[in-house]
Amino acid sequence: MAIIKATALEKCYRTEAETVYALRNVDFEINPGDFTIINGPSGSGKTTLLNILSGIDQPSKGQLYLDNLPITEFTDNVRTEIRRDKIGLIFQSFELIPVLTAAENIEYPLLLQKIHPAKRSDRVKEILEQVGLAQYAKRFRLYQRLF
Ligand SMILES: Nc1ncnc2c1ncn2[C@@H]1O[C@H](COP(=O)(O)OP(=O)(O)OP(=O)(O)O)[C@@H](O)[C@H]1O
Ligand SMILES: [Mg+2]
């Protein structure tokens, strides 16, 4: 069963001068285990689509199901909770919290999910090991390299 299903997604931006269609009639499914790349020239709507898929933004028309939940029908607050629990976003510019260490950056969303402290720290260790960064758990993003 699809973990992401989009039907007839449309996103238009209206300005005084014109209406820009960033997405028109987008249909697709992503299944568990899929590795999917969204590819296209600058301005073709990649960021717009990713923002909608992750629930950050809403389409002008169409439906989006995440894990069978019709997220386009939910309020901003509910979409934020679903994003917290189900989606991991890695931004090109990282968007790490600079005053937190690598381990604390990983721990932060678990804290928001109110996961028990012992379980949190096990999960943080596991994730750091998975990506080969266990030795950098206490490092900040930049400072330790500079000083
Ligand atoms: N807030 C906005 N207001 C008006 N038009 C917008 C807005 N955001 C995006 N657009 C327009 O929507 C279209 C798609 O933009 P989008 O940023 O999704 O493209 P992209 O594929 O991510 O481009 P890039 O490869 O440069 O990152 C573009 O024509 C862009 O100018
Ligand atoms: Mg973009």
Name some characteristics of this structure.
147 residues, alpha+beta, Rossmann fold, 2 domains, 4-stranded antiparallel beta sheet, binds adenosine-5'-triphosphate, binds magnesium ion
Description:
With 147 residues, the protein is α+β, with helices and mostly antiparallel strands. The chain folds into two domains: 4-86, Rossmann fold (3-Layer(aba) Sandwich), CATH 3.40.50; 102-146, no CATH class. Helices cover 33% and strands 21% of the residues. The protein has five helices and four strands. It has helices spanning 46-53, 76-86, 102-112, 117-130, 143-146; strands spanning 4-14, 19-30, 61-66, 69-70. The chain has a four-stranded antiparallel beta sheet, with helices on one face. A hairpin with a 2-residue loop joins strand 3 and strand 4 (69-70). Helix 3 (102-112) crosses helix 4 (117-130). It is elongated, with a radius of gyration of 18 Å. The protein binds adenosine-5'-triphosphate and magnesium ion. Magnesium ion (MG) binds next to helix 1.
